[in-house]
Design a protein that fits this description.
CATH architecture of the largest domain: 3-Layer(aba) Sandwich
Shape: globular
Mean pLDDT: 91
Number of helices: 16
Largest sheet: 14 strands, mixed
Number of strands: 26
């Protein structure tokens, strides 16, 4: 398989696709169809509006909105003027919003009206100067907006427009047919296109900067994995993965660079997803393992015809064999797996559709990537079939985190004159080149496909006045990968503190998927001779409990 890139700039690649596919459906959003021509017109208008609002080339623009046609339009408009997109989850609290705004240096933000209060609460402590507010139904036909508001089924938040606060819908109307204002911004492939934030072992999310050429090579390669089954221009993708996540970008959004069609919903609603697959003839579905399990266990699954699906892909975590087997029996097609990371711009390995993939394999190494499996302590290669830490390199790879030299030194190493990313995942590879996940070496928790930092949870718990020490681990759960359990040591003179109170405390700061599900109180926690917390001992204890 060869990578086919016509342009080294994201917006140029999209514009070239528009020339071929003008009136073809680019996006279906909440049942409304948007052609390639329409999406480009909206993106051009948004680009012109950004320039008039004072946004310049290389400036950071945050996207704090859910999956939607607005997200696509804004992201493309940002790319057109050579600015840098900073997409984040719309469920972030002011705590994370404030940190990422400052870490990225963002000066503008597109937010949903329901999050406007969070944005205004951090304006005084960040460099954010321009706020563009959008409602989830902004670009839908007037009658959908009317009835949605009439029957109170469209969420709305209060906001007030001023000299630095704009309505997205009004901007797009005002700058309609004014795209020429945004022309002439020359960007090269090595220029920064966006910054995605990922969890890990640190207290705060880490910014991963992507260049245009890295994104285009990775996205094109991954979106074409299903090409032996479905021609890329005929593909209709049910994009369940969030667009602020690399899985949603390279395996869903990327179809707009090859001529396919993307189906978007602002949040996961299984009946709505089933209806969209059935009604729009989706041929591809993207999701995490937990979503496939939820679908199989849904009471009304048999009421829908999902026979249009030809390619189903699972990423973000290891797919349980039992889920894959049930899916194959139910629908007669496999769920293809893959392995990747934000730092590698998505896929490192993916299961091919033209060969038989062994059970539990996450696929074979993609052409754009090189890997080594090494001893984690010495970085020396291990024998074929033996487990070791996976290292990844590529021609356009990320080589550092944003503003984090210590974490960069830990995660990126130079070997034989090349830069390699240390995934901190223990993997093995058989003689045929199939890759298998074995274990994680770092203190991250995988919940619903998200990488959650154990130290971030511990830091929040230890800010509670009653807590002297804490330890967070992942407890295996077949539905969501791992659930979060925290062990807590209270100060000696503290009485009456409950686990529920500590969970409420965490909810004040942490985004919902990072909040512990269980709290267990201890008199002490295991530590090494030098005082380092031994999370591995806690994890081993949990494993023994599960086995008894």
């Amino acid at each position: 398989m060869t990578t086919q890139i016509e342009n080294n700039i994201i917006y140029s690649a999209f514009a070239a696709t528009v020339e071929r596919r003008k009136d073809h459906a680019a996006v279906f959003y909440l049942g409304s169809r948007f052609s390639y021509r329409k999406v480009k017109d909206l993106a051009d208008s948004f680009a012109a509006a950004l320039i008039d609002c004072g946004v310049k080339k290389n400036q950071r623009v945050m996207l704090y909105i859910p999956n939607s046609i607005q997200w696509v339009v804004c992201w493309l408009g940002i790319q057109q003027i050579g600015a840098v997109a900073v997409p984040i989850t719309p469920i972030y609290t002011p705590h994370d919003l404030n940190y990422i705004a400052n870490d990225s240096g963002a000066e503008a933000i597109v937010c949903s009206d329901t999050n406007f209060g969070y944005v205004t609460s951090v304006l005084a402590t960040t460099d954010l100067k321009r706020v563009i507010v959008s409602n989830v139904a902004d670009l839908l036909p007037w009658w959908k907006r009317y009835f949605g508001h009439l029957f109170n089924i469209i969420p709305r938040g209060k906001y007030k427009l001023d000299a630095q606060t704009y309505s997205l819908r009004k901007l797009l109307a005002q700058y309609q047919n004014q795209s020429s204002k945004s022309s002439g911004s020359v960007t090269e492939g090595r220029a920064l296109a966006e910054i995605l934030y990922t969890g890990g072992t640190t207290k705060f999310p880490k910014g991963v900067p992507f260049t245009h050429d890295l994104f285009l090579v990775s996205a094109d390669e991954q979106i074409r994995m299903s090409e032996p089954i479905i021609p890329v221009e005929d593909n209709v993708i049910m994009g369940n993965a969030p667009l602020f996540h690399i899985l949603g970008q390279t395996c869903s959004l990327a179809t707009l660079l090859t001529g396919g069609t993307l189906i978007l919903q602002p949040r996961i609603n299984l009946d709505a997803n089933f209806d969209a697959i059935q009604g729009l003839g989706a041929k591809t579905m993207i999701g995490v393992p937990a979503l496939y399990r939820m679908m199989l266990e849904h009471d009304r699954l048999d009421q829908y015809d999902l026979s249009s699906l030809k390619y189903c892909f699972s990423g973000g975590d290891v797919l349980p064999v039992e889920v894959g087997k049930r899916w194959q029996e139910k629908f007669g097609i496999p769920i293809y797996q893959g392995y990747g990371a934000t730092e590698t711009c998505g896929g490192v390995a993916m299961c091919r559709t033209d060969v038989a993939n062994p059970p539990k394999s996450v696929g074979r190494i993609l052409n754009s990537k090189k890997v080594k499996i090494v001893d984690a302590a010495t970085l020396e290669p291990v024998a074929t079939g033996d487990p070791g830490e996976l290292l990844v390199s590529s021609d356009y790879m990320v080589s550092s985190y944003l503003n984090k030299p210590e974490e960069t030194a830990e995660s990126f190493v130079e070997l034989e004159g090349e830069k390699w990313y240390r995934t901190a995942d223990i993997m093995s590879m058989d003689q045929d080149g199939n890759l298998y996940f074995v274990d994680r070496t770092v203190d991250t928790i995988k919940h619903k496909g998200y990488r959650v930092s154990a130290s971030e949870i511990e830091s929040v718990l230890q800010e509670h006045p009653a807590v002297i020490a804490s330890c967070a681990v992942g407890v295996p759960d077949e539905r969501v990968g791992e659930r979060i359990k925290a062990y807590v040591v209270l100060k000696e003179d503290i009485k009456g503190i409950t686990g529920y109170e500590l969970i409420k405390w965490c909810r004040r700061t942490l985004v919902s998927y990072k909040v512990p599900h269980y709290i267990e109180f201890r008199d002490m926690l295991p530590k090494s001779k030098v005082g380092k917390l031994l999370r591995r001992e806690i994890r081993s204890e949990e494993q023994r409990r599960k086995e008894t």
